[in-house]
Design goal:
The complex is a heterodimer of chains A (528) and B (106). Chain A has helices spanning 8-16, 22-36, 64-79, 122-129, 173-180, 197-203, 237-247, 304-319, 336-352, 371-382, 385-398, 404-425, 455-459, 466-471, 500-513; strands at residues 59-62, 91-95, 133-138, 186-191, 206-209, 229-234, 277-279, 286-290, 297-301, 323-325, 435-439, 475-482, 488-494. Chain A is α/β, with parallel strands linked by helices and 528 residues long. An eleven-stranded mixed beta sheet of chain A has the order 1-3-2-4-6-5-12-13-11-7-10, sandwiched between helices. Chain A has a two-stranded antiparallel sheet with strand order 8-9. Chain A is globular and about 70 Å long. Classes of the chains: A alpha/beta (528), B mainly alpha (106). At the A-B interface, helix 9, helix 10, helix 11, helix 12 and helix 13 of A face helix 1 and helix 2 of B.
Chain lengths: 528, 106
């Protein structure tokens, strides 16, 4: 096994035993990037070559020298016998929606393509303070607006390492694909409707959407401020726990970062699932979506390839001593996307008004003699179609004459979605769940171009993940097997506020119990 | 609920959003907006008791969770020039913009 394929926790032990150096690890990752990533995302990238179609394209910016310098610092500390930090020498990538001082921080948009961040986001600062080595900034849907990565202004868009003809998911597609392809052990992503969990599921890696407030949003370029959650992408649950340990906790720079103490996620990680109550809900085994032709709502059960790994995981957990509770009603699940279409757009429109060609970022090069025209021309040239769509919808549903029927109503539906979870997790209620076990996504990774352009169908890729964002609760996506086309299937665990420790413990139990199964031996296509 | 966004309403929104669109973009965006509205219309079918309050966020901001607000005191930035340097056009530490049009408030 090459160094870049070794998970973070094991790397950390080898580094501390001085069997390997941080610089060797970093170089191994840089070599892997050179071998599989192809050209990095760029504006006006021209058409795709046949070679492009075989590569991963996770990156927008590779911070090679910065990474090597960080690695050498870790090696010096190790040599001097100093404590180099929890993640010393562990290579990671950062979704390019986080500001990192001195690096282009683009949000995958033309409007921020020339922006160099003057400060560093708290989760990145915490990774680096713990000795982790940042290899670069990875691609995403423009401003995170998508579930496939295809909307990035920096093309070629990332591709799925399991089959580069398929999307890696989104919006943290660069994060998930870089981790799956062994380009980095860890990645920092964000999840607003499923943007960590869905690409993690599509790329066969672990993704954690922490409780809202568990991880600081300081330095995160905002999309939906009441929904955005930074979180880890990793190759296994131990690594995800290590990373969450590092980035979680209160932050004086984010008044929504909760002051709830951070538990020791690693100490209890292998404590098992005996006695835990894990629920299954029929409302997570069907999807409802508007027919593309008629607009009528249709309900459909999930494909067997998606359903079976979840039911099998329930059996595995039951055999380990968990109590499986069936038929938990989650009746408002189906309203997650309609409510999200309203709430997230209002927040996005508000957050995007700051991009005006005046203070930073892109300004039109047309000769313009009037400030209003400057705003319009700059925003027209700087934003792609997906940001424009979100701004317009946000303006519409929050307009005074429509707000009661759309925005206010969506916020009340959000209350119902939260209540579903409160009732399922209620300690004195009927179900008393510690966690709900569901599929992460309604399908495995779809083909590039198959959905892109249809903004409604694309949004429904998040149907099983978005309720957790409305409710604020934590979610974990784990690899659960492969479908008939050998594409990864994700299973999801959802729990009460700040129960990441329990979700990680369940995930780890499942991971250990299935460690030797054949599907775990299959490698992504780009590594075969 | 109103059925769809017509062209006039759309043009008004484009102005409010400080955008300027070519015909092809406008056609795509108007179509997608109306398709999304069909999905949003599902919200109208949900029985909502008068007592159901709005949730602006999922996790309640209880005192056990929310940090105290920090004191509202002025803190100088260590290097304001670095911030100003990000602006597309500056002169003598000021950000330069074209003429600000005169508008009369009604």
């Amino acid at each position: 096994m090459e160094l870049c394929d070794i998970p973070a926790y094991e790397l950390s032990l080898l580094l501390r035993q001085r069997q390997i150096s941080a610089e060797e690890v970093t170089r191994a990752c840089l070599e892997r990037i050179a071998a599989v990533d192809g050209r990095s995302g760029a504006l006006d990238a021209g058409s795709l070559t046949p070679e492009d179609e075989q590569k991963v394209h996770a990156f927008i910016t590779i911070t090679r020298e910065r990474a090597l310098n960080q690695a050498r610092t870790v090696d010096q500390k190790l040599a001097a016998g100093e404590d180099p930090g929890l993640l010393a020498g562990i290579p990671f990538t950062t979704k390019d929606i986080f500001s990192v001082r001195g690096t282009p921080s683009t949000a995958a948009s033309r409007i921020l393509a020339n922006y160099t961040a003057p400060y560093t986001a708290t989760p990145v600062a915490r990774m680096e303070a713990a000795g982790a080595v940042m290899l670069g900034k990875v691609n995403l849907d423009e401003f995170t607006y998508g579930s496939s990565n295809e909307s990035t202004a920096f093309q070629p868009a990332p591709r799925n390492p399991w089959n580069p003809a398929h999307v890696p998911g989104g919006s943290s597609g660069g994060s998930a694909s870089s981790v799956a392809a062994g380009e980095a052990a860890l990645s920092l992503g964000t999840d607003t409707a499923g943007s960590i969990r869905q690409p993690a599921a599509f790329c066969g890696v672990v993704g954690v959407k922490p409780t809202y407030g568990r991880v600081s949003r300081y330095g995160l370029i905002a999309f939906g401020s009441s929904l955005d959650c930074p979180g880890p992408v990793a190759r296994n649950v131990v690594d995800a726990a290590l990373m969450l340990q590092t980035i979680a906790g209160a932050d004086p720079r984010d008044s929504t970062a909760a002051k709830v103490p951070v538990p020791d996620y690693l100490a209890q990680l292998e404590g098992g699932v005996k006695g835990l109550r894990i629920g299954l809900s029929p409302d997570y085994f069907r999807i409802a979506f508007p027919d593309p032709q008629t607009g009528e709502y249709r309900e459909q059960s999930l494909p067997m390839d998606i359903e079976s790994p979840v039911l099998r995981a329930a059996e595995v957990l039951a055999s380990l001593g968990a109590e499986i509770v069936e038929d938990v009603p989650m009746p408002n699940t189906r309203y997650g996307i309609p409510a999200y279409f309203v709430i997230s757009r209002v927040e996005a429109a508000s957050n995007l008004h700051r991009y005006d060609g005046v203070k930073y970022g892109y300004r039109t090069r047309q000769p313009i003699d009037d400030l209003t025209k400057l705003y319009r021309q700059t925003r027209n040239e700087g934003f792609g179609l997906q940001p424009k769509l979100r701004i317009l919808m946000g303006m519409y549903v929050s307009a005074a004459q429509y707000s009661a029927q759309y925005y206010q109503r969506a916020l009340r539906v959000r209350t119902l979605i939260r209540r579903d979870f409160e009732q399922a997790f209620d300690r004195s209620g009927k179900h008393r769940l510690d966690a709900l076990l569901t599929p992460t996504t309604p399908t495995t990774a779809f083909k590039m171009g198959a959905v892109y352009g249809d903004s409604v169908l694309m949004q429904y890729a998040d149907q099983l993940t978005v309720p957790a964002n409305h409710a604020g609760i934590p979610g974990l996506s784990l690899p659960g097997g492969l479908d008939a086309d050998r594409l990864p299937v994700g299973i999801q665990l959802l729990g009460p506020d700040f129960s990441e420790d329990v979700l990680l413990r369940i995930g780890r139990a499942y991971e250990l119990a299935t460690e030797t199964e054949d599907w775990r031996k299959v490698k992504p296509m780009v590594l075969r | 609920m109103s059925d769809s966004i017509d062209r006039d309403t759309f043009d008004h929104l484009v102005g409010l959003a400080a955008l300027e669109l070519d015909q092809q973009q406008a056609d795509y965006l108007l179509r997608e907006l109306n398709n999304q509205l069909k999905a949003i219309r599902e919200l109208a079918a949900i029985p909502l008791d008068e007592s159901v309050p709005a949730s602006l966020h999922g996790v309640p901001y209880a005192s056990a969770v929310s940090p105290e607000l920090r004191a509202d005191v002025w803190q100088p930035h260590p290097n304001p020039e670095e911030i100003i340097a990000q602006a597309p056009d500056t002169r003598d530490g000021y950000i330069v913009v074209p003429d600000i049009p005169h508008t009369t408030l009604e």
